[in-house]
Design brief:
By secondary structure, the protein is an all-alpha fold. It has one domain: Up-down Bundle (I/LWEQ domain). 78% of the residues lie in helices and 0% in strands. The longest helix has 28 residues. 28% of the residues are buried.
Length: 191
């Protein structure tokens, strides 16, 4: 007999996919239009495009990581659902923080809040990964897919490096470190 405290992942995955699609749509809709149809006007918005690129890649990476994880998950419970809801709460701040950092690229506060959102996402994913393994400890494919240490340690170290550089007078270092982490994660996932 199936344990009734566990449920299927299909509705959670569909809900998650829809929310990520909405967040990505909001990101692109928040991009400002150039003042004129000229290359200098487009180049004037480079910080908005840079912030958009990082945020888009963060969302795509989170979606891809979530998909890989739940491809191997056979059962979830209400704690996993609430961890996913908490994750979506933090991810849903990405469009707001993207505009904040795009409008204030050299502000320590905007960069720190942007980076902290990124770190919170990784912490929630880490907690979720640990809990999913606790639910299904015999699932070797799930353990391989989660790569728990890489999911939290590398982004945290890079964020701390960016934070240290930011406090030395270069706040944009946090965004650069977030971008490096995302590119590293994407390259790693393609292997």
């Amino acid at each position: 007999m199936e344990d009734e405290s566990y449920i299927s992942t299909s509705r959670l995955e569909a809900f998650y996919d829809a929310i990520i699609a909405i967040i990505i749509t909001i990101l692109v809709l928040e991009l400002p239009q150039p003042a004129t149809a000229s290359i200098p006007a487009i180049l004037a918005l480079k910080t908005s495009y840079f912030s958009y690129l990082i945020s888009f890649l963060v969302c795509a990476n989170i979606w891809q990581y979530h998909h890989v994880i739940y491809n191997h998950v056979e059962k979830i419970d209400s704690k996993i659902i609430w961890l996913n809801i908490l994750l979506l709460l933090v991810v849903s701040l990405i469009p707001y923080l993207t505009i904040f950092v795009a409008n204030n690229p050299f502000s320590l506060l905007s960069q720190v809040l942007y980076g902290l959102d990124f770190i919170l996402i990784n912490i929630i994913l880490f907690i979720m990964a640990k809990y999913l393994i606790r639910i299904d400890p015999e699932n070797a494919k799930l353990k391989d897919a989660l790569l728990i240490k890489d999911a939290l340690i590398v982004p945290s170290v890079l964020f701390l490096i960016g934070l240290a550089i930011a406090f030395m007078g270069y706040p944009i270092a946090i965004s650069v470190c977030c971008l490096i982490t995302i590119i590293r994660s994407i390259i790693y996932s393609l292997k």
